[in-house]
Request: fold
Amino acid sequence: MKKFCLSILVLFILFNTNILAIDKIKVDVLYFHGTFRCNTCLKIEDYSKVTVESVFEKEIKSGLVSFQSIDFQEEKNEHYVDKYKLETQALILSVKENGKEIKFKNLEKIWDFVSDYDQFKAYVIKEVKKLLKTVKDLYLKDIIYPSYNDIFNAFQLVTPEDIKVVIIGQD
Reply:
């Protein structure tokens, strides 16, 4: 019984602090497109999604990175046009701290690399990694547990199949 209670306590600490840290700072990869799309626009969306989801799988699972495709011509999304000065399809990287955007970058060169997936992929990876470094720098300015290097440690210690109870806390 003591071992079970200790295991639950350890999981609670690991998962709870991990959730708090990840919720604090994150990178959103946002692909903006119009309602009607050509083959090139569909290709850019596919390249972006495949690249982000395959290369940053661990970060996506933890909530540190996300990918979203957004139709900026829909009425509910029109505010993005002014916010990001959208004139056409765009891939935007957005760093958010506590849900508030603190930095963004429009990856304008996606159009230059659309005919070469390897160049496209290298460009997107390089830019996402730059912003992840920004996230790391922001993360390290405060004392947050677990340490930056241990953010994903809970996923290495326990598989989802081994979890019987999840306790989510909020401060």
Remarks:
- The chain has six helices and four strands.
